[in-house]
Amino acid sequence: MIAYIAIGSNLGDRLDNVKKAVLRAADEEKATLVFMSSFYETEPWGIKEQPAFINAVMGVETELAPAALLAHLKAVEAGLGRQMSERWGPRVIDLDIIFYDGLVIDEKGLKIPHPSAHERAFVMVPLAEIAPEFVHPVLGRSAAEIAGGLDKSGVKKLEI
After folding, report:
1. Can you spell out the DSSP letters for 83-111?
2. Secondary structure of residue 110 in the 3-state scheme
3. pLDDT tens for residues 17-75?
């Protein structure tokens, strides 16, 4: 199974935080990295008065069930110093399952596809970079189509 995971950081060494999260999340025992987007500097979403984010999307191959993958990602966040704070507020690291193959899950604490991913250029632009033909299982539109319809003015690809 392929899961697409959005990664973001806007506290501390943002780029290093994202790189560490990728290495820890794709530890080959639980998930194998198969796709990695470029890094993007993006404007904050939700609460505007906070530092800019570094965002990326990775695709991992995993045999973990979605709930187990989510638990793994939460453990990675905790290991990198994430503390729960205000919704959409600043964070050392944020890891969200955006898609898990074509599954649609709506349970308490686990919603796949991520309910707001299709509205967020900081998610859809990097996803469209690595999986342009991936079709949103609810909307029936490709990642490239969705990204193409979003305002990308606050999303800047980093040349690293």
Report:
1. ---STT---S-EEEEEEETT--EEETTEE
2. strand
3. 999 999 999 987 899 999 999 999 998 877 777 889 999 999 999 999 999 999 999 99
- Mean pLDDT along residues 134-138: 97
Clarify whether 91 is annotated catalytic. Answer: yes
For the chain, domain boundaries: 2-157
Q: What is the DSSP letter of 86?
A: S
**Which pLDDT score, from 0 to 100, does residue 82 have?**
66
What is the chain's percent helix, strand, coil content, to nearest 5?
Answer: 30, 25, 45
Among candidate residues 91, 101, 141, 151, the one labeled active-site is 91
pLDDT, mean over the chain: 92
Known catalytic residue at 14 = no
13 is annotated as an active-site residue: no
Q: Kindly name the residue from 14, 94, 101, 120 that is annotated as catalytic.
A: 94
Q: Measured between alpha carbons, how far is 113 from 94 in angstroms, rounded to an integer? A: 16
Given 14, 96, 106, 120, which residue is catalytic?
96
Q: Look up 82 and say whether it is catalytic.
A: yes
Q: Taking the model in full, what pTM does it have?
A: 0.93
CATH architecture of the domain formed by 2-157 = 2-Layer Sandwich (3.30)
**Per annotation, catalytic residue among 13, 16, 27, 82:** 82
